[in-house]
Amino acid sequence: EVLGKTKARVTLASTESEGMMMLGHGNQPTPESLDPLKELPVMVELKDGKWSAALETGEATPVQQQVLGKIAGRISGNDYWLYGDVPKQVGDAWDANVALLSDFVGLDSLTGRIRVEFADVRDFGGTPCAVLEMEIDISGYAPPEGSANPMGMKIKGKATVHRSLEDLLDLELELKGEATIEGQPAPGMSMRVTGPITVTSKTTVQPR
To answer: Which helix (H) or strand (E) holds 156?
Structure first.
């Protein structure tokens, strides 16, 4: 619900995300993500050139604060740099601003190119979605776990995204290509792995 040029109320449906990454012959499920802001009205507002997000009523828990920060970041960050702020129509194609993406398929500090094409509009699980085709050739770093060093990763391939036209959420991403992971996971240890990669990410929006 738009309340003005710089303010809007968003009631978030509950979302559940699941993903799978396959490198070579091994599958690695990504943790399921449950939305702690289920059906809670959220106010997003532009102040002094920055977007903020807060619960309309009540005080957010620490976990909810983290998600609110991601919402504000997505409004001002990833979606903007990936899809732009100009309305698109079928047949349009553009280059994402890779250098300003905070992350993509789990990587940050990105370089390279992501070419996006608005290929079609289709029903996806009962939801009208934009079908976005991507040509991907990027390098970045996988965030380390614990005290491990970050690992460099290169991905070259193609992805298809089904993006809800109602919720402006990516309901599904499927990426296939080649990947190289290299770095020093521990002192005195070097690693380099190259092989096929498949990334699948799905988000289910529960009915309001």
So the answer is: strand 151-164
